[in-house]
Design brief:
six-stranded mixed beta sheet, 7 helices
Amino acid sequence: MRVSLIQMNVTLADEAANTKTLLRLAEEAMTAAEPPDVLVLPELWTTGFYPRPIADYADAGGARAKAALSALAARYGVNVVGGTIARGAKGGVYNTCYIFGRDGACLASYDKSHLFTPSGEKRDFAAGERLVTFLLDGTPCGIAVCYDLRFPALFSALARAGVEVLFLPAAWPLVRLAHWQTLLCARAIENQIFVCACNAASADESLAGHSALLDPWGETLGEAGLAETIVTATLPLARRRAIKQKLDVFDDWRAGLYEKPVVQANR
């Protein structure tokens, strides 16, 4: 599986400009000598992270984004992990990712589960209530978004469900770049999965960039810097299977233990 991460500069509250940027970079990726099987976009690529009140900028039912991403997938015959958009719905505004197959069909959607309290996300967005897996070209894949990265139980649940490749759109800030890099590596290693993390870039360098593709050993297959760019690498899927034949950590998983009350000793 060959994956391209579209680390695009996202302009705040300018959907038309951001769509133009996406289409330009997608064309660059797909006309390369060796085009990818999957394009991955960053979090809130239509609006940036994020104009307020976000409800004024929300895409009702995700209709505009779905039309644009479906057309993009069908035009190039490529799978698209569509970052996230602010989706307007009856229950509020959701931070939603849509995934499309090579024919432009929508294969899955996921609403960001964990909302970042320090930035007030809980006041502006509704949280998703389900985890999602899907197949891309026959490979079991999963999705998480930005702050989800700090919650290892989400990743272990997806790995135990059979996910081999995890996609992570994000708008992660530069001030916490070290956390981004450390946690991406940890999630890949502890779950023995490929992690394809697409962060946004920004003209003022407030966002961390450093989109990355990691293998199940935590080895970097490709990584960006701060600037707008495309990062492409081929995921050697057989490597994961070889690793798990030697050391499958989930053979030793003890689900019942983790649900028991913690004993308070010496009290």
